[in-house]
Every structure is written in C-alpha cells, then in structure tokens.
Amino acid sequence: MAKNFDLVVIGAGPGGYIAAIRAAQLGMSVACVDAWSDEKGKPAPGGTCTNVGCIPSKALLQSSEHYEQADKHFAEHGIKVKGLELKLDTLLGRKDKVVNENNQGILFLFKKNKVTFFHGKAAFNAKVDAGWSIKVNGKEAEELVAKHVVVATGSSARSFPNLPFDEKTVLSNDGALRLTEVPKKLGVIGAGVIGLELGSVWRRLGAEVTILEGAPEFLAAADRDVAKEALSALTKQGLEIKLGAKVGEVKASGKGVSVAYKDSADKEHNAEFDKLIVSIGRVPNTDGLGAETVGLKLDERGFVEVDDDCRTNLPNVWAVGDVVRGPMLAHKAEDEGVAVAERISGQQPHINFDTIPWVIYTSPEMAWVGKTEQDLKKEGRDYRMGKFPFMANGRARALGDTTGFVKILADAKTDEVLGVHIVGPTASELIAEAVVIMEFRGAAEDIARICHAHPTLSEAMKEAALAVDKRALNF
Ligand code: NAI
Hints:
It is a single chain. The protein is an alpha/beta fold. The chain folds into three domains: about 220 residues, 3-Layer(bba) Sandwich (FAD/NAD(P)-binding domain); about 110 residues, FAD/NAD(P)-binding domain; about 110 residues, FAD/NAD-linked reductase, C-terminal dimerisation domain (Enolase-like, domain 1), CATH 3.30.390.30. Helix content is about 30%, strand content about 25%. The chain is built from 13 helices and 21 strands. The strands form five sheets. It has a five-stranded mixed β-barrel. The protein has a five-stranded parallel sheet with strand order 7-14-8-9-10. Strands 17-18-21-20-19 form a five-stranded antiparallel sheet, with helices on both faces. A hairpin with a 4-residue loop joins strand 17 and strand 18.
C-alpha cells in the first residue's frame, strides 16, 4: 500500500536533506529518499558533499596540511621532528570516520525532525489524484504518494571522452579520495576546484603532481589578482600547472596512464602518470529518475529545467541544487532547499544569487563574493579598489602565513561594496563578513568603521576597506 506524505524529497545531499528538515519544521509530513550506501551497505545520506566531496576532501586537506607543516615548517618555530612518517591508512581511516559521523548526523536530524527516511533509489511513477506516485527501489520496494516532490539528485563527475572512470587508475573525485598509496606521479586534467584541492592533497603527501588545464587563463572566473597570486603560490609549492594544454589521446592500463597533449605553444608531449584525476566539471544526475514517465522537462544539457523559484514544468514538482542551473555548490543547494520548503508552505523567501560566496580550499585559500574587477571593467562601472596584504597583518605574521591579500571593490559614487576577493589564510572564514555587508548593501566605509578584534586576520578586511578610501592605517 502506498505511503502518503505532504512532500517527498528525492536525494539527501545538502539540497535535499535541508529541504526535508525545513519542510518538517513547517509542519509538513515529509519523506526523504536516498540511495547512497556506505561500504557495509548501510544508508549514507549527505550526497556527494558528505560522501565524496566537501567533507572528505577537507579532512584530507587538513591531514595533509599537518603533514606538510611538520615536514617543512615546524623547524621555523624551533620544533624539531624526528622520524616523521605518514600512515596513509590511518589518515584515510580518519577521513572515513569524519564522513560517517556526518552520515549519522543527518540520520539523527531526520529522526529529530520526524522526516521518514527511505534507503533506495526513487523514480517518478505516475501522476495520481493525490499528487505524485514515487517508486522506491530499495531493500523493499515502496510506493510513496505526495502532493509535492523536490528533486535533489545532485551531479556526477564528467568523464573525459572515451575514458571511463575505473576509480583505480582513472579517478573521479571519488577514487581520488581513496588511493591506498601515494602515487609517485599524479596527473590531473582540469585546474578547477577539484583538481586544485585534490592535487594539493596528494602533492603534500609526496606525489609529483602535474595539472593540465585546457583554458589559457588560470581560474577564469576568479578575480585576476587572486588567480595570479594563487598560481604563483601553488607553483612555488611544487604543483606543476600547464595552462592552455590540449589533451589528446589518453591511454590507461592497469599500471598507469599515458596522456598525449599539446602545450600552449602547440608542442606535442606524452606524459606518463601512475594515476590520473579527471576533474573537468560535473553533469546532473537524472538517469533512472523517471523524468520521461511523467514529462519532467530537462534542458539541452540535461539539467532539470526550473524557474527562479526552483519550480519545474510540472505542478508541485520542484528541483534544487546541482541538478538545476547555477553554481554546483553545497551552500547554494541548501539555500534553494530551504526556499522551496518555505514556498510550499506559502512563504515568499528570496535567494540573492549575487552574494553566493565561492571558496577554494587550497593553501592559500581563495574566497570571493560579488563582482570581479574584470566584471566591473566590462560593465564600464565606476569603482574604487582597496587592497591589503596579509604581509602587513600582525596575526598573519605570528601565524607564519603571510601569502595573499584582501581586495575590496566598491562603487565610486555610493561606496557600496560590489565584490570582495581574498587569497590567504582562512579566506573561507573571512569571506562571511563580506557576504553580510553585501547582503545589507553596505559600503566599504561600513566595514572600515566596524571594530575588528586585534590581532586577527579579519583586520585585513577592515584595512582593505580603509584602502578603498586610500586611508589604510597599517600599510
Ligand atoms: P570546474 O568547473 O571547477 O573546473 C573544471 C576545469 O577543467 C576548468 O578549469 C576547465 O577549463 C577544465 N577543463 C574542462 N575540460 C577540459 C579538458 N578537456 N582538458 C583540460 N581541461 C579541461 O570543475 P571541477 O573541478 O570538476 O568541479 C566540479 C564542481 O564541483 C564545480 O562546479 C565546483 O563548484 C564544485 N566543487 C566545489 C568545491 C568548493 O566549493 N570548494 C570543491 C570541489 C568541487
């Protein structure tokens, strides 16, 4: 017999599980269906972010950063390390534990909020009088009927043409988090977010890493100053980043991979790697969703087509996160999930897509929000720019991490903050202040007049705001 709910959410990644919780808070009866299993076959809600994305990569970035600090930087602090040794299985085990704690946390939150969880793959079955019939293909087959459905099925790594992922030699973000030994030579195709973060992890652990990037520019979406500073810092650390590389034939065998490519001067190369990470973007997950059964419209790239409010072409069917247009970011998915739950319950929430922050967790970290300087130039907008280097920040000097800067772009007439670009220590945390200011449509002067604790890295934000008006105090 079918089980009835007000809302069925398909997918328990950051978009789906948050939508389910918010809807339950608003008094709806909610089911959330997710197929992800851990190695023991147990439910592992949390999607790509929790299982093979944000969370495990940050665990590995932290561990590898500790290792590199102990190896290369403790000596500056007068700490001598003897017999430093890497126990990769412990490092990976810790990462798995962190992931599992997050999976369990979501299951706990479902219980707490009375969200009914189903472990299995969900697909649209039919339009019925009470709404939508959804089939769940799990340990036991279930039929769910709900007035509203939220599709939050996420995305998967895009493979290189004729080169399927085997997750042993040719790796997606998933296999790249599970290598059981440090490769001697690691190749990466794509110097985007995943390539840079995972390339950094394995370089710190001892691999020789070469990243082949097709675009002639490094991180084309980032502010040019940030991209330049980051490229220089990452290259100095030993990441070999080849821009404008045209990758041709890639041959993978059990032993390794050979990659033919032309460099930016059209010179041909053949590189041999032990492992290859392919990180050239992601594609939306709609296979097996039953979209065609009920006429759910996909766009020409396979994303579920939605309007600004995440409504699909079908009544009371919504879609959020990576499976719809917009940046593939966990926090964007979460905000869409909350907004949809609130819209279903009659509220009128609003998401400001112009203030979604971006973060790349390399060392130095990069984070930005709003317009880049090149955007403003293209728009012909009159702006003022203030920049403050971490080199001039006392806390950064004490930390021993002075790479990078904070850069603020403000309207020349109104002083409204239009964009903030950070490269440097804890950029991921510092960007929050910029997002708040921009959400309130505040001015650089507002940041400059807010009392920032001393000594903190956040003072670099205040100083950059002062620099917009050419009155930085410490630089
Ligand atoms: P990406 O879109 O960030 O970067 C892909 C890169 O591959 C681009 O620089 C592109 O020019 C290059 N590329 C594409 N085709 C190529 C080819 N044939 N040869 C050489 N280079 C090629 O995609 P990525 O890194 O796979 O990440 C996917 C998504 O995951 C991103 O949209 C990102 O938003 C999300 N993500 C976010 C993270 C964060 O917020 N810190 C961390 C990891 C992923």
